[in-house]
Structure formats: C-alpha cells, structure tokens
Amino acid sequence: MSVTTKATIASFGGKLLKLSHAATSTKCEMNFNLYLPPQASSQKVPVLIYLSGLTCTADNCSEKGFFQHAASKKGIAVLYPDTSPRGLDIQGENDSWDFGTGAGFYVDATNAPYNNGYNMYTYVTEELPKTAFAAFPQLDSSRVSITGHSMGGHGALTLFLRNPGKYKSVSAFAPISNPINCPWGQKAFAGYLGDDKAKWAEHDATELVKKWKGPLDVLIDVGTGDNFYKQGQLLPENLEKAAKESGVEGVTVRYQPDYDHSYFTMATFSDDHVEHAAKYLFA
Amino acid sequence: MSVTTKATIASFGGKLLKLSHAATSTKCEMNFNLYLPPQASSQKVPVLIYLSGLTCTADNCSEKGFFQHAASKKGIAVLYPDTSPRGLDIQGENDSWDFGTGAGFYVDATNAPYNNGYNMYTYVTEELPKTAFAAFPQLDSSRVSITGHSMGGHGALTLFLRNPGKYKSVSAFAPISNPINCPWGQKAFAGYLGDDKAKWAEHDATELVKKWKGPLDVLIDVGTGDNFYKQGQLLPENLEKAAKESGVEGVTVRYQPDYDHSYFTMATFSDDHVEHAAKYLFA
What we know:
Chains A, B: This is S-formylglutathione hydrolase. The structure is a homodimer of 283-residue chains. The relative contact order of chain A is 0.15. The first copy, chain A, has 283 residues and is an alpha/beta fold. In chain A, strands 1-2-3-5-4-6 form a six-stranded mixed beta sheet. The first copy, chain A, has a three-stranded parallel beta sheet with strand order 7-8-9, with helices on both faces. Chain A has helices spanning 58-64, 67-74, 120-135, 151-162, 183-193, 197-201, 205-209, 227-230, 236-245, 263-281; strands at residues 3-11, 14-23, 28-36, 45-51, 77-81, 139-148, 170-173, 218-223, 251-256. The two termini of chain A are 31 Å apart. Chain A is globular and about 50 Å long. The first copy, chain A, is 34% helix and 23% strand. Chain A has ten helices and nine strands. In chain A, helix 2 runs parallel beside helix 10 (263-281).
C-alpha cells in the first residue's frame, strides 16, 4: 500500500503529485497523479476521479485539462489513474493503440491472457482509492465523484451506473456511450471479456442506464467536430435514447459546436464539470 | 504574405488557428498559432504576443499555458510565434538544445553563419505582426501587448524596452533577465552576435532598463522552486536592482513559493498576466 512520490509540482495554489505504487489487482507498478487543492492543507477535501482515454497516461489531463483551475477554487482533489497495466509483457498488448497497453477499458478481463492483470475495473473502483485514502488522510473517502474522457467517459459512466451510491456524481467528455455497438468497444470487450455478449452489456452505459432506478444527473459534453463522434465510436444518442425510453431522466448531452476530441475541449469545459461534481460533493 | 491554415481548433468559445507562412526575415516557412477569442467574430480585438522558451514551438503554450481561458473572457487575441527558424541546415544549429533550432533568443544574428536567417527580432517585431494583421483584419494593430516565458520572457522584456510605445504592456514568466551574465545568454549572444559586448547589452533587459525614461509597469512571476532560477540563469534580482538604482519604478517581481519552470506555473498565473495586459489594451 505504500506510495512513492516521484514529483511534487505547484499548481493553482495546491500541489500536483506524481505517484506510483505496487498494485495487486494489475500486477505491476502503477503510476497515478493526485492534485491536492490548497484547502487540503487544513481540512478534508472530496475527490474527483478523472479517467483518461485511449493511449493516455495520468499526465495528459493533468497538463492540458485544467481541472486544477476549478478544483483549486472549490477545494476538490483530483485523482488521475493510468489507463492500463504497464509492462506485463502479455503477448499482443502493445500491438494496437486501442487495445492492451493504454487501453484497459475499465473492465476486469476474464479472457486469457488478459485476465492476468488487466483488471482496471477493480483497480479504479477499489485498489487505487483505498491506496490513496490510506496515503493521504486529507482525502474524504465518503465524498467521491467521477468523470472521464472518451474511453474514460465510458469508464466514468459505467462505474457510476454499476455502483449506485458509490460516487456522488458523474460526468463525461465525449464518452464511448454504447461500446457494444462501436468498433473500439467491440474489439476491447471481445479481447478482455470473450464472446459472451451478456458480459459485454454489464459494461455498456446504454445498457446499464436502462436498469437505473431513481433520479440521475449526468453531464456529458460532446463536440460536433469530434471525428470519433462522427465515425460512430461514441454514440451518445444511443445513451440518450435508452434513458428516455426507460423513463430515466437527467441524461444531459451538450453537443458543443465545432469542438473536437482533444484536450482543448476538456480545457474549455472542465470548469463546468468540476462545478457539476461540486454541487454533489458539497451537497 | 499569404498564410496557410493547418488546423482550426475550437477553444474557450473561440478558435485556435495553427498557421504557417513563408517568412522573408528567417528565410523559411514559419509556423505560428493564433487564438481568436469569440469577440473577434464581431469586432476588432487587441493582441497579446506570447514568446516561448527554449526548445518550445508555438504549440506548447497553446496547449498548456491556459492563456485562452482569460483571453476568451477579455476578448484578446493571442499570437504564439515559433522560437527560431526551422530547417535552414546551418552547420551546428541542431547540436544544442539551448542554441540554434528552438533557441533564436529574439535577436537578429550578426555573426556568421547564423546571420543567414536567425533574425527572430525582426521576425517577431515586424514580419509576423504584419503578416497576421494582413491576414486577420479583426486584429487591432494599434493595441498589442507582449509576454513570454524564460527565453521568451527575455524576448518580451527586451522587445518592449527597445521599442517604447510599440507595445501597450509587458509581462514575463521566469524571464532570462540579465542574459549577458548567465550561461544561456552568453552562449547565445556569442553565437549570434559575436564578441562585441556592446551589442550584447542592447539585448539585455537589465542593461536596457537603466536607460528607460518614464513610468514602467512590468509584471514578472518567478517560482522559487525553479531550478533555472536557482542555477542563476534567470537573475531577476539583477533587473530589479538595476531598475531601482536607475530610479525606474514599476518592475514587480513576484517570487511564487515552490513554483517551478514548467507550464504548470504559467497555467496558474496566466489569468493574472492577461489581466495585466487587458488593463492597458483596454485603457
């Protein structure tokens, strides 16, 4: 459970910590970043988990997403996990940019050989928070929200929908909203979960929202200039439709004119997503 | 004078344009970025020139500096030049990270072989603005401010001090404030300007401030955790001392506890620097 501090960087009045720890669930040393806002030096602060997209590490959004800007004002810590195990030397894990290394898809693999370490679901929902809460007592484990981008938007939505009550709120940028019906998701789920489509549905936000009971308040931003949106990798309309047809209210997709799939989009709207989380973390 | 648009990226309600043009002064195709705030679609907007540091291109600060955040609110365009000519194939230009490519130091070289294209002073003060104003009539050529980081902080200070009235305001992050007395500056000036120390002094902010007449209002942020500051590459104290001894008021150096030389520092304080420029651009 011990955490190694690799860098401490002053940012927006707080500290961005670059950390690592030996993870059991993913069977390797895992890097992660933690932003501690200035308020964390004198009080407990809630936590916003940000899940990254394909090919990213914990660093990309820490540098380009500007979540620290609003998190600093609100007094929210931001936890940035990595996107997959690293260096397991599983055959084929480095062959594609959208599968294997950098592309763990926030599931626990059941299919060999990926079931030997590709357990990003357990890692993000259990091991990493437990590790972070133990190492940083200023984090309030009872107040955690989740957000993410693209593959990480899929992660945020599905982790939230699978675990009612675990997270205070959820939002997403350009999420893969219906992975069982898009090429990225189909490739990943086939590789990690095998052929059993019932297992796939357990990690599909559009399928999960159909079973949601009670109120929901999901903020989603998708750029209309996002090539992956245009290519049908994201399918936020399917999520909206499924929610509507199931009588689940509160799935808000904002289609942002011209915005693309990049961190420029996140930088533009991260204040809104931190605000959305703050509404519930400080309720 | 024609400008090629390589990318148009939505950012903070405006557009970040990745551009290039065939530059005469630097004898090569030069990339630059221009952020047009939302206000530029309906009115003339003033311009803040941001000069980058060693090894950087126009992209680094566009992605990580967070200037668009405040520029969007204030209605200020941000012009990001590159840091040197590219691809001139001058012998030795790619041998060091702190000289030659990516390290033009905002001077016009007089020393061979660099006098054949390393004219970043003329490029930034004349050719690039002229090109940008011709291509983008929504830019107000009568309202221009300047800022920069490290080598670009040196550039901002010296271009401002050498050209009274040309820029409405100046600010800098971790500027090389007394290049004639630090290793980076000595190497660059020897290479670009030769042995004549009188020429060096013409591009040294600490020397130039001694001759300044009238009021001055320079905002400078330097992190106390900045390794290059600790190593004596920046020497902001020399600038402060020279200003004070010359009776020049208004050189404000804020020593920011723990902040380093990275873009995390700029992201944290860029709002302040845009605000500083806005005070004069909208005076």
